[in-house]
Amino acid sequence: MGTQQLAQARREAMRNTSIVGAITNTVLTIIKIIFGFIGNSTALIADGLHSLADLSTDLMVLLAAKYSTQPADQEHPYGHARIETIFTVALGAILIITAGGIAVDAAQRILNPESLLKPTPIVLLIAFLSIAANEALYQYTIGAARRVKSNLLAANAWHHRTDAISSIVVLVGVAGSLLDFTYLDAFAAIGVALMIAKVGWDQAWGAIRELIDTGLEPETINHIKQAIAEVKGVKSMHMLRSRRMAGSSHIDVHIQVDSRLSVSEGHHISDYVRYRLYELNPSIADVMIHIDPEDDELTELNKALPLRQELIPLLEKYWCEILPKYSLDQCTFHYLAGKIEIDLFLPLAEQSEIPQSSKLAQTLKSKISDLSYIGNIKIFFY
């Protein structure tokens, strides 16, 4: 699936799952809170607030579907996927705040036994209904999340699953209260709060790690290194960096190739590495490869060396008497180990006119002996 197709599929999946989830959670919120009061169950009311939080996150996913899947533009050259990440942080924060409110209310009831309520059997039926509805929502949403590789959808799916689990806790607490274990309903509410807080923290922390560009897991990095090393023409690699962006991964790496390769061959090797990584891991959306003729990880060896436009006039000045007719525009310069090696190309038909052609390289080198940054000189005739 191409990048644009994946973005379109993600947008549709976010919209569809959030609409279904919003409708379901609206109904569940109303039913739980109403029957929580009617059935005297603090835990069911807490579970209703959990469904309300689910409703808010469904609306957040709907907004994320609109903005996070927009294509890259001039102001956002990497796209808008991080909007999804920000919404995931907000979703986690809402869950944690909701959990705190539920836990405080339940704790106050435990500390004040006169405020404890004894649920009625109708609460059990509502809890069963909630378990079935939220498990169905989980299966529907997690399937869509896996299909379009969306962390936000996966987080929302687990939000639905935790609502189902919290309803199971409500079921146990209410059943205990009906058996005259009065405190169980309040303790069940605290249990629900702890589960909500755990899921909220996991979602928020994972998204925060993405926002600060935390790298991929060591196992994934090792697979990437192995795939790069297997490409013919790659001598070594270094400065491998990775980061996440919504449901995708981005890789930067320096690869070292033979120092005498042409620019086009080095570029071809880098393209092969890029396609190899795309095949290895479908979540990789972008690979930036820097080609090195030598290992530049520790130091910038060639930073102070002159560029071609400075070097050619200088060499022509030194060599004007030896090579009066020839332009040096066809020279190839190799910037290696802090020096410049020169490949000089001269016409084969004019070879006889060049004095002492067999010793020409040595003569040229002696003329520029004060240029300490010049390394070997090789002469080729064509």
Shape: rod-shaped
According to CATH, the homologous superfamily of the largest domain is Cation efflux protein transmembrane domain
Q: Ends: how far apart?
A: 49 Å
Question: Which spans have pLDDT < 50 for at least 5 consecutive residues?
Answer: none
Summarize the SSE layout with pairings.
Elements (H helix, E strand, L loop, with lengths): L2 H36 L3 H26 L14 H30 L10 H27 L2 H28 L5 H28 L6 H12 L6 E10 L2 E9 L6 H18 L3 E9 L15 H12 L12 E5 L2 E8 L13 H8 L6 E8 L1
Parallel strand pairs: 2-3, 5-6
Antiparallel strand pairs: 1-2, 4-5
Helix pairs in contact: 1-2, 1-4, 2-3, 2-5, 2-6, 3-6, 4-5, 5-6, 7-8
TL;DR of this structure?
By secondary structure, the protein is an alpha/beta fold. It has helices at 3-38, 42-67, 82-111, 122-148, 151-178, 184-211, 218-229, 263-280, 308-319, 360-367, and strands spanning 236-245, 248-256, 284-292, 332-336, 339-346, 374-381.
